Amino acid sequence: MAQGEKLKDKQKNESNAVSETKEKENLIVPDTSVIIGDPRAINHFLNDGNLLVIPFTVLRELDKLKNDWRIGSVARTVIRQIENLVFSDHPQVIIEKNTNFKDLRIDAAKPDDQIIATFNYVLHTTQLYGGYKKYKLVSDDTNMRIIAQTLFKEFPQVKIERYHSNLVVPKRNQDIPIVSVSGSEVRLRYESEIFGEIPENGGVIIENFPSSSARKENSFLTIRKGDSLEPISTYLEIMGLTAVNDKGVNWNQLLAFRQLLDKGIHLVFLQGPAGTGKTLLAVAAALEQRKDFDQLILVNPMIPLNNQQKMGFLPGDIKAKSAPWLLPFEQNIRFLEKTQRNRMAAILNNGKKQKNSKASSSGIDLENETGNNISEKYGFICQPLDYIRGQTIINSFIIVEEAQNLSQLEMKTIVTRAGKGTKYVFCGDISQIDLPYISIDNSGLTYGIEKLSGFGAKNKMVGVSILTETVRSPLAAFASEVL
User: Which of 150, 294, 307, 369 has its CA 20 to 30 A from that of 233?
Assistant: First the structure.
């Protein structure tokens, strides 16, 4: 058969494949940001017989991202997904290399504009792409959506939208509910009719508790444990720190104290603005319970301010490159050294005894050895996020800093590494996200809080504390209020 006839047959088969799906649902053109933000998006788009048209530009962008220091693994995962679909001649997937810039007045050199031009080509190529209910351009880029809406608003069948399948609406209230009880309600038993919907390990402040009770305080904090509300001592301590300050009791912080020390809670989310004590509490809790764990691990996504990649230019090995991202931990350790000298000295002395015991059995002289930095001195080790995949981490206390910069996939990857005896503490502020493809409603931190905390039996392993009161300094508190 001549080459020209083979080409005609191929085009005819492609046209037939499209026509088989054009009676069903929608035609979808995704932006790169969507499938990088959620690699599951491709499978979601293929549901219900939709036709997925992937612009050739998206493949080129994925190729550039596959070696990216942060999202390279995600890009490679997406590329493999597309490869499987293309090489299996999936009838609902087309790679479209053509563009149509006519009358668009956009920049042909910009990838975003090339994707818009691909969508424009699809709209005007009715012989191949005609007959769908809706033509959707899906993007997580706000500016791209605005431009596309402006260009295609005259097309009634066109819909410009954000990817919705991975969006999570934060539902956790920042304020711990306050319930005033009467003399007949002396039992601390959880009843939703009285206390409202409180998730497992959530807090309730009890007011006006009868003075005839065994408790001295008229107002105190409780934590929900199944059908019970267990009182939390106002003066609960972690490494000498308490939740009582010159303003009174910091109830949100006190709830965090209890969750961090609770052996039945294996994952704690500490969410709140800068200066609320998230990292300090996590570090103090790790040191307080160091004898219960084999390892104290620090994890930081290592996202520079404004998402400018600079780690590769830092000198040294991975430990040296990670040093700048350990500074928040080390500053909090130094604070504890200054304010809790005896407790911190006891930790160091105990650590030296353990090292000397190991040294005597191995014949190695460790008498004068110290850690390369203050974190190592107290037994913390740094675990780069990229190296956590594939591990099973047993009996470890793991602090994940800047968790608002995690994607949903990364949140799942980290939590599913947990072996027996491991406890996680995720610290983050969803108002300070540094990555362009992550927002408040698709951040891994928001996703983790909303999916893992709740009202069922399995949710007893998870605690959430929303810290609201800035304790860093009066200036930091003022700035958090007005800036």
Answer: 294
The model's pLDDT over 52-82, given as tens digits with 9 standing for 90+, comes to 999 999 999 999 998 876 778 889 999 999 9
359 Cβ contact list (under 8 Å, min separation 6)? 365, 366, 367
**What pLDDT, in 10s, does the model give residues 241-259?**
999 887 889 999 999 999 9
DSSP-assigned letter for residue 389: T
Are the C-beta atoms of residues 35 and 75 closer than 8 Å to each other? no
- What would you report as the CA-atom Rg of the chain, rounded to the nearest whole angstrom? 28
DSSP 119: H
Report the interhelical angle of 56-65 vs 111-124 (nearest 10°). 160
Q: Are 422 and 294 in contact (CB under 8 A)?
A: no
Report the Cα 312 to chain-centroid distance in Å: 23
Q: Which residues contact 169 (CB under 8 A, 6 or more apart)?
A: 441, 450
DSSP class of residue 313 equals G
DSSP 200-229: TT-EEEEES--TTSS-S-SSEEEEEETTEE
How do residues 97-107 score in pLDDT, each as one tens digit? 999 999 999 99
Element (H, E) at 159: strand 158-161
pTM metric for this prediction: 0.80
312 DSSP assignment: G
User: What burial letters (b/e) apply to 17-56, b meaning 16+ CB within 10 Å?
Assistant: bbeebbeebbbbbbbbbbbbbbbebbebbbeeebbbbbbe
Phi, psi of 412 (to 5 degrees): -65, -45
Separation CA 481–CA 483 (nearest Å) = 6
Please name which of 452, 466, 426, 423 lies closest in space to residue 265, comparing C-alpha atoms: 423
Buried b (16+ CB within 10 A) or exposed e, 257-295: bbbbebeebbbbbbbbbebbbbbbbbbbbbbbbbeebeb
